[in-house]
Write a structure and sequence with these properties.
Layout (H helix, E strand, L loop, with lengths): L8 E4 L14 E4 L2 E8 L1 E2 L4 E2 L4 H17 L8 E8 L5 H11 L6 E6 L9 E8 L10
Parallel strand pairs: 6-7
Antiparallel strand pairs: 1-2, 2-3, 3-8, 4-5, 6-8
Length: 141
């Protein structure tokens, strides 16, 4: 590979979000694109899954993602894509009721999948891709 193709990488870790539950980083920033690992509703102070099911877990997962973004000067408005993993899609509405309070306009692209099981017996896990820096919206012609 040519030395001309140098990319900058930052491993993002913050104590304000739940730590990784395995050998991975909370997020990796490559140039201006951040890849946020799947995060669950784990309270960063107790390192325990919040109680109460899908809604409190969704809220805590999104709070964790927000903290990761804020640790490098970003915000939820930098997110361009989310992937939501759930153990029961019958609870999609409950998850979505919380999710939509975090993304009120300029909604990111999203996919949602049902999985058999998540770590720590979580009901929901959310990963995201964000583009850091100023994002300017425009109308397609």
């Amino acid at each position: 590979m040519s030395d001309e193709l140098t990319n900058r990488r930052l491993i993002v870790e913050t104590p304000n979000a739940a730590g990784a539950v395995g050998p991975y980083s909370q997020a990796v920033l490559i140039n201006n694109v951040m890849y946020i690992s799947g995060t669950m509703g784990i309270n960063p102070k107790t390192n325990e899954l919040v109680k109460g099911g899908v809604q409190p877990e969704t809220k805590q997962a999104l709070d964790n993602i927000k903290a990761i973004l804020e640790s490098v000067g970003g915000s939820l408005s930098n997110i361009v894509k989310c992937t939501v993993l759930m153990t029961d899609l019958k609870q999609f509405k409950q998850m979505n009721d919380i999710y939509q309070t975090y993304f009120k306009s300029e909604h990111p692209a999203r996919a949602a999948y049902q999985v058999v099981k998540l770590p720590k017996d979580s009901n929901v896990e959310i990963e995201a891709i964000a583009v850091m820096g100023k994002i300017e919206d425009y109308e397609a012609v």
